[in-house]
Specification:
Shape: elongated
Strand content: under 5%
Distance between the termini: 37 Å
Number of strands: 0
Largest sheet: none
Number of helices: 6
Order of helices and strands: HHHHHH
């Protein structure tokens, strides 16, 4: 099975009202993965600058600007670069926090929809259905996706 086909099948299983949130969550997760890679590169670059400040000339696009900044302000350059990397990580981790909150809310909304549909199905079942089933089992089936720590929002 191709990856595209697997993704299409997974998206088809999600209710239409919940699909935009799940697709946005996937895009946000991919963006965060790219930012994580960029963060690792920034840390390695900062270590390289500490070891050899001349390495700045080889940085594409911003290299000449950084060299001019280091030459103009040699005492402030390294702390400023470190603060820039720290600022990047602050923004990245803030975005990660937003992604975690968004993921949790999206999961809970989807589980609530699934459980609500299951409960409606149980309530609409013929009266004899409830004689054949244990009520505790039915309640567990409805409540199971939430676990004991989940809270509906």
């Amino acid at each position: 099975m191709s990856v595209r086909r697997a993704i299409r099948r997974a998206v088809a299983m999600i209710e239409p009202g919940h699909r935009p949130a799940w697709i946005a969550l996937g895009a946000l997760s991919a963006l965060l993965a790219l930012l994580e890679m960029l963060g690792a590169a920034l840390v390695f670059g900062l270590v390289g600058v500490v070891a050899n400040p001349g390495v700045l000339t080889r940085v594409p696009l911003v290299g000449p600007l950084l060299v001019d900044f280091v030459q103009a302000n040699p005492a402030v350059a390294l702390p400023a670069l470190a603060a820039g990397v720290a600022g990047f990580f602050l923004v990245k981790n803030l975005l990660l926090f937003v992604e975690i909150v968004f993921r949790e809310r999206t999961e809970l909304r989807t589980m609530a929809t699934i459980s609500g549909g299951l409960l409606r199905g149980y309530l609409r079942a013929p009266y004899a259905f409830h004689f054949r089933r244990n009520s505790a089992e039915l309640f567990r089936n409805v409540d199971q996706p939430f676990g004991k720590d989940a809270v509906l929002r």
